[in-house]
UniProtKB/TrEMBL annotation, chains A, B:
Residues 75-261 form the ATP-grasp domain. Keywords: ATP-binding, Ligase, Nucleotide-binding, Purine biosynthesis. Belongs to the PurK/PurT family. Its EC number is 6.3.4.18. It is an enzyme of class 6 (ligase). It comes from the Bacteria. PROSITE patterns: ATP_GRASP. Pathway: Purine metabolism; IMP biosynthesis via de novo pathway; 5-amino-1-(5-phospho-D-ribosyl)imidazole-4-carboxylate from 5-amino-1-(5-phospho-D-ribosyl)imidazole (N5-CAIR route): step 1/2. It comes from Homoserinibacter gongjuensis. It catalyses: 5-amino-1-(5-phospho-beta-D-ribosyl)imidazole + hydrogencarbonate + ATP = 5-carboxyamino-1-(5-phospho-D-ribosyl)imidazole + ADP + phosphate + 2 H(+). This is N5-carboxyaminoimidazole ribonucleotide synthase. Pfam families: ATP-grasp (PF02222), PurK_C (PF17769), RS_preATP-grasp-like (PF22660).
Length: 344, 344
């Protein structure tokens, strides 16, 4: 494993430390391995292409990762394969944004095509001038503008795919976002009905059409009319799949490795009727409270606590808890109670 | 972690490599840590005592480990606390062995007090001269001789204990031994009835009386009369607890670390109605068949496969599989089918 920074939590498991943007560093690391995969989408395309040229298997490949790296490319590709997405446009100035607003009830969502995460690079706009600061640095690529979707809730469908084409889908989950950050995940999504099958078929189609290998996370809106729209894609183990570590026969991490190694996929079935994951964020002071670990363990022996060993910053994900059981209300309450011990 | 040999599977996770019998090596390693624990019982008592003197927490402590290191000491201590054990004696020559045989129907089991495992150092004897070779090297410590117990089956009760005294017991399991080696484990033990409560109480009492910290495995006979007798003790995560990795809310490895760190213990409840573990042994040729890994994964996506990365030798444990489900017969069949792919 190539970690970015010495002393980071990732470096504890790493065999090398270096900059993933530096072609020589990455090629040197790749010379020792059979397959390259990623836990984020930020490796530059020239580095990815150099890896392919060097002969190492890159999974997912540059062509698939390009779709996860640029939100405008993602919308283009999803539209091209007929996946349901919000109305969208690429806009390069306030005039084009104003025209989109006029066509969509005077409200829209503007996104920077690259580099956003956890609500960063996303802004609700109501005037053509609301994105002027972003246009100044956007250049020719412009910005992505999307219809503001009235939705009942957010969902996520995770699927794994091998180079040989085999697919395995975990159950559809409901995700609760706060301030643009995933706060809670309920697995399976309560009362999903036919949407569960639709979401699975949709994610499998996207994985196949985009030639994704490894885990694909499809973040979805369930609209007020009960339709599914694709919000975002991620091509790696994803926050909405952390529940699988404790709650599924095969976790997303094991499955990602099976998939990129082109080994047969494991059973994604849940182990319990209900699993609930609650993220632990750094508190307003930039603290989280690891001294409360023992109290959380004592209070909730059945809840699994995961600390990432990361330095805390306000709102940063520094860990999560997972509870499993039979009744959603009970499991949610237990998971929240355990997570509350860590909030500063 | 201190691993014994460079290049071993343990060394992949180790922060140091060295001889656990060498006091200087172990003390140097211990200077960097808060708590010392073990994955075998072979660290010599003088090294353990030096660790304690150095101020590091040693869990389990030398006084507890002494009981697991010497089978005669184990029998003495278990008898002293009134735990049910087979009739036994310490014998130092053929005459004493002959007297024991005469009192026990002409058949008995002789054990070397130290260093035995997986059936090594254990012999069924029918004549006073059957252990002459072992007496020659046994010295003053002599040999342990035990009543040959007619039993219905073998069971194991695992429990974890913290220094502060908190206990947590997994369900009683049935173990199937072949040629003195654990072959299969069924969790929970089928049709255990009241024995499950008796075994739990017994293991908790042994852990408390012997001041064990960490995981204690109590291997048991269920006699033809339906009574429990203690066969062996181990003070560490144990082969009969490997099913907990995939089949329990808290695995024996997580629990052992919680216990020796004096952190609150996790829930030992099973995740499924039935879990079955089947060991994978090196084949008669000294081979096992890792090339069949992908076929086993494809054939049994719901079974979890564990390879230890060890060099194969005939009969050596090189991995295991765990299956979970609702019906014992079905789960056993699936686990055996998966394990069969690896046999040479």
């Amino acid at each position: 494993m190539l970690a970015e920074v010495e002393g980071s939590s990732a470096s504890l498991a790493a065999t090398a430390v270096g900059d993933y943007r530096d072609e020589a560093t990455v090629l040197k690391f790749a010379a020792e391995v059979d397959v390259i995969t990623f836990d984020h989408e930020h490796v530059p395309q020239p580095v990815l292409e150099a890896l392919v040229a060097s002969g190492v298997a890159v999974r997912p490949g540059p062509h698939a990762l390009a779709v996860a790296q640029d939100k405008t490319v993602m919308r283009e590709r999803l539209s091209a394969i007929g996946a349901p997405v919000p109305d969208w446009a690429r806009v390069t100035d306030a005039g084009e944004l104003g025209a989109f607003l006029a066509d969509h009830g005077g409200v829209a969502v503007v996104k920077t095509p690259r580099g956003g995460y956890d609500g960063k690079g996303v802004r609700v706009v109501r005037a053509a001038s609301d994105a002027d600061d972003w246009f100044m640095s956007a250049g020719e690529a412009g910005l992505l503008v999307e219809q503001y979707v009235p939705f009942r809730r957010e969902l996520a469908q995770l699927v794994a795919r091998r180079p040989s084409g085999q697919l395995a889908a975990w159950p559809l989950v409901e995700t609760v976002q706060r301030d643009g950050v995933c706060a809670e995940v309920f697995a399976p999504a309560p009362h999903a009905g036919v949407l569960a099958d639709e979401a699975r078929a949709l994610a499998e189609r996207i994985a196949t059409e985009l030639d994704v290998t490894g885990v694909l996370a499809v973040e979805l809106f369930e609209t007020d009319e009960g339709r599914l729209l694709v919000n975002e894609l991620a091509m790696r183990p994803h926050n909405t799949g952390h529940w699988t570590i404790d709650g599924a026969v095969t976790s997303q991490f094991e499955q990602h490795l099976r998939a990129v190694l082109d080994l047969p996929l494991g059973d994604p079935s849940p182990l319990a009727s209900v699993s609930v994951m609650v993220n632990i964020l750094g508190g307003p002071s930039g603290e989280w409270m690891p001294d409360r670990y023992a109290r959380a363990m004592a209070d909730r022996p059945e809840v699994k606590l995961h600390s990432y060993g990361k330095e805390s910053r306000p709102g940063r994900k520094v860990g999560h808890v997972t509870a499993t059981g039979d009744e959603l209300d009970d499991v949610v309450a237990r998971a929240r109670a355990a997570a509350a011990f860590f909030q500063g």
